[in-house]
């Protein structure tokens, strides 16, 4: 699908002078808990109150949400505090109940976005709605699946659409609960520039101490808003205890975040920026050039291996290269993670080239 037809979005219409903030507990637990949190977020920059009513849990036996009764509590939140409300929907029945209870934002969770059947079913149930619908990224780093979900919702004539970046799960251990892979969100934004892009640092980090940093990175990357799990007693939350912050901490985070302008017209800034960008362009060209040269040599090695019927993968040599490059990288201020990623990608491309030669 081409870029979205929307020019002015629901977000522009809110006329906010700060990024959009959606906050509230991971799960609605009791009526008191929900109302207490909502009242403490009432006179802050929070725009929407979130609470999960139906909770997708990875393993059975955990708290799976209070169900439809929680929608009544959210209605009470709106009546008592004026805060608009948001909850996750994962099937047609959820959609119908959430619409009946006048929930303002319905979001589709990461575990639902992975299934085109589920997304289509939800899109059909939502057809033509003027509620705000937010689509989280799928749990796996698959851009087409995320784009496909957006397209299904657009095709269902949903005008007030947005996406939430909540990171991606990996088998490899990392400091994140779900690694951000910012590039994917940036690519999605390039494809749909009018689509509001919201970051969920709570599910990216899994740890409350890291929420500020990830939120700042999101704002530095021009994200339009944040969804931050907030609870009056985070340690005793019934789900996602480690990543929730108190309302006081949320207010502090919002105060400390630096909001960047998209650009600045000042002449000196622009001439300096252009000069630096010209240098980056020269370096990028030489990077590509060098990679091309490296690959031609890998091709020659492929020919040599073929003539002697030797295997493409030489683990010992490869581990030596990696070890050396990590050290070299360190001296230049490049992280081990980065060097590993780059060299694994280069190595994979060499293997592909040599495989082709061996099969010729
Ligand atoms: C949530 O927002 O509480 C949630 C379940 O998120 P996700 O779908 O990103 O895991
Ligand atoms: Mn959660």
- CATH fold annotation of the largest domain: TIM Barrel
Mean of all residue-level pLDDT scores: 94
Oligomer: single chain
- Output the strand order for the largest sheet: 1-2-3-4-5-6-7-8
Q: Under the CATH scheme, which architecture of the largest domain would be assigned?
A: Alpha-Beta Barrel
Helix fraction bin: 40-55%
Q: Please, how many helices?
A: 14
Number of strands: 8
What sequence of helices (H) and strands (E) makes up the elements? HEHEHEHEHHEHEHEHHEHHHH
Ligand identities: phosphoenolpyruvate, manganese (II) ion
Strand content: 5-15%
Largest sheet: 8 strands, parallel, barrel
Q: Tell me, what's the shape?
A: globular
CATH superfamily of the largest domain: Aldolase class I
Give the termini separation: 38 Å
Name of the CATH class of the largest domain: Alpha Beta
Calculate Rg over CA atoms.
Answer: 24 Å
Question: SS-based structural class?
Answer: alpha/beta
Low-confidence stretches: none
Number of domains: 2
Q: What report would you give on this structure?
A:
The chain has 14 helices and eight strands. It is α/β, with parallel strands linked by helices and 360 residues long. The protein folds into two domains: 6-259, Alpha-Beta Barrel (TIM Barrel), CATH 3.20.20; 268-359, Chorismate Mutase Domain, subunit A (Up-down Bundle). It has an eight-stranded parallel beta barrel, surrounded by five helices. Helix 2 (31-41) runs parallel beside helix 3 and helix 13 packs antiparallel against helix 14 (336-359). It is globular, with a radius of gyration of 24 Å. The protein binds phosphoenolpyruvate (PEP) and manganese (II) ion.
């Amino acid at each position: 699908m081409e870029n979205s037809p929307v020019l002015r979005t629901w977000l522009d219409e809110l006329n906010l002078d700060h990024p959009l903030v959606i906050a509230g507990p991971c799960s609605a637990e009791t009526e008191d808990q929900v109302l207490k949190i909502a009242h403490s977020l009432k006179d802050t920059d929070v725009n929407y109150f979130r609470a999960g009513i139906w909770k997708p849990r990875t393993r059975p036996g955990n708290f799976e949400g209070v169900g439809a009764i929680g929608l009544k509590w959210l209605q009470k939140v709106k009546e008592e505090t004026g805060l608009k409300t948001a909850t996750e929907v994962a099937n047609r029945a959820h959609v119908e109940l959430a619409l009946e209870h006048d929930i303002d934002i319905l979001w589709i969770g990461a575990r639902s976005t992975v299934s085109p059947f589920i997304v289509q079913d939800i899109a059909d149930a939502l057809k033509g709605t003027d509620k705000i619908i937010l689509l989280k990224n799928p749990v796996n780093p698959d851009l087409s699946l995320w784009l496909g979900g957006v397209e299904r919702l657009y095709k269902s004539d949903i005008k007030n659409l947005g996406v939430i970046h909540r990171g991606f799960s990996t088998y490899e251990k990392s400091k994140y609960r779900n690694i951000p892979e910012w590039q994917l969100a940036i690519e999605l934004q390039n494809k749909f520039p009018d689509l509001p892009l919201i970051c969920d640092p709570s599910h990216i980090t899994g740890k409350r101490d890291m929420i500020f940093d990830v939120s700042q990175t999101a704002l530095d990357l021009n994200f339009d808003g944040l969804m931050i799990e907030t609870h009056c007693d985070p340690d005793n939350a019934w789900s996602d205890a480690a990543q929730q912050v108190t309302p006081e901490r949320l207010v502090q985070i919002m105060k400390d975040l630096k909001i960047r302008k998209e650009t600045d017209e000042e002449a000196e800034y622009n001439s300096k920026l252009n000069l630096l960008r010209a240098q980056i362009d020269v370096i990028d060209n030489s990077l590509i050039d060098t990679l091309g040269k490296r690959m031609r040599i890998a091709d020659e090695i492929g020919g040599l291996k073929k003539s002697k019927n030797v295997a493409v993968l030489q683990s010992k040599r490869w581990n030596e290269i990696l070890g050396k490059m990590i050290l070299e990288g360190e001296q230049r201020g490049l992280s081990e993670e980065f060097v590993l990623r780059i060299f694994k990608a280069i190595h994979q491309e060499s293997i592909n080239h040599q495989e082709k030669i061996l099969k010729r």
